[in-house]
Specification:
The protein is built from 12 helices and 7 strands. By secondary structure, the chain is α/β, with parallel strands linked by helices. The strands form 2 sheets. The protein has a 5-stranded parallel β-sheet. α6 links the parallel β3 and β4. α3 crosses α4. The longest helix has 34 residues.
Length: 353
């Protein structure tokens, strides 16, 4: 078991409020390509108790037992099963579809094309995220029309202020804290980003990290293809979910300007070891912090990049689709059996005179 450092020294658990016995909450799932939907599920689960333990499955994502039973059946019978509300508008299915289709329909201010809708629907039939199995719980659902799995499909993300507040810390920089600014796309927020931010966090005794996220069009300008895979609003929630980040600038300028540094009273500007692309006029986007002597590059020690994740998905596409096709067929059979089982008592009562 890997402990994330939130507990006290020696791994001892603190009692719950009022000295009562602490409530330990368990969640499990595949958590492949972790996104803000997963983060929101874990946030909700954590609020149900005092300590959260997360189990990560092997590459066989467990949704049903070998004999076709619900993996949470015993927990439900014991009255210890709870449900988290699903985060609408995000799924691993959708993200994979964006990588394979190579369109920009998901970018902010872009209309979803009929081509993307058609592909998203067909891809959803082959691969589904099963959000309900990645938690103690999930939002309840019933089978969709047409024999589709209830957890399959792609929905568009709608940003709201309430959603941002749920992820944000709401803290302002305090006297004595070191304000550190980092900027980038932070696309498909992954462990490489987390390792970088952890290193940045360790640069000061009391750090306050502000992450500047570039507009989708800006990212596409220096990354090309159909990047970013996640749009600005989605990337905002993903970064806010990271414990090392205190504040996010939504749509930060590509060049770190004097106005930005002065406005946020920035003490230090950090960048990873990835290549720094010049601004549209050919200038160095970090010219001002370098001039002030507050710029430094940080080696995260992790070689994982968004490009590598996309390459893995493309390489393993057929295997991924075949696995999820088999998985969905198994779950549809389970749903059908459950429906027949629920209908049986009704038929028996109709015949009982």
């Amino acid at each position: 078991m890997i402990r994330n450092g939130h507990g006290e020294a020696g791994g001892a658990e603190r009692p719950g409020p009022g000295g009562r016995r602490a409530v330990r909450v368990w969640c499990d799932g595949c958590y492949d390509m972790v996104h803000y939907g997963h983060s929101n599920q874990l946030r909700q689960a954590r609020a149900m108790g005092d300590h959260l333990i997360v189990g990560v499955h092997t590459d066989d994502d467990i949704t049903l037992t070998v004999d076709g039973r619900d993996t949470y059946e015993e927990v439900k019978q014991a009255g210890r099963y709870r449900e988290c509300k699903r985060t609408q508008g995000v799924s691993t299915t959708d993200l994979v579809g964006r990588m394979l289709l190579v369109t920009k329909a998901h970018h902010s201010s872009q209309e979803m094309s009929s081509e993307y809708r058609e592909y998203a629907d067909s891809f959803g039939k082959l691969s589904h995220p099963t959000p309900s199995r990645e938690t103690l719980s999930s939002g309840g659902s019933s089978q969709c029309p047409g024999g589709r799995n209830p957890w399959t499909g792609v929905s568009q993300f709608l940003q709201t202020s309430r959603k941002i507040i749920q992820f944000a810390s709401g803290k302002e920089p305090q006297p004595g804290e070191t304000v550190i600014y980092v900027a980038g796309a932070f696309d498909l927020f992954h462990i490489g980003h987390v390792d970088f931010l952890e290193k940045v966090h360790g640069l000061a005794e009391r750090p306050y990290i502000i992450a500047g996220l570039h507009f989708d069009q800006e990212v596409n300008h220096y990354k090309g293809k159909n990047y970013p895979i996640m749009n600005l609003h989605e990337r905002t929630l993903s970064v806010l979910a990271c414990r090392y980040v205190s504040e996010v600038v939504i749509g930060a300028p590509y060049s770190v300007t004097a106005e930005l540094l002065d406005h946020f009273k920035v003490d230090l500007v950090c960048h990873g070891k990835t290549e720094i692309m010049p601004d549209k006029d050919g200038s160095d986007p970090y010219e001002e912090p370098k001039r002030r002597g507050i710029f430094c590059q940080i080696d995260s020690g992790n070689d994982l990049t968004t490009d590598l994740i996309v390459q893995r998905i493309i390489k393993n596409r057929l295997e991924y689709e075949a696995r999820n096709q088999k998985k969905e067929a198994k779950e549809l059979a389970f749903l059908e059996a459950m429906r027949q089982q629920e209908a049986r008592p009704e038929r028996e009562s109709d015949c009982d005179f």
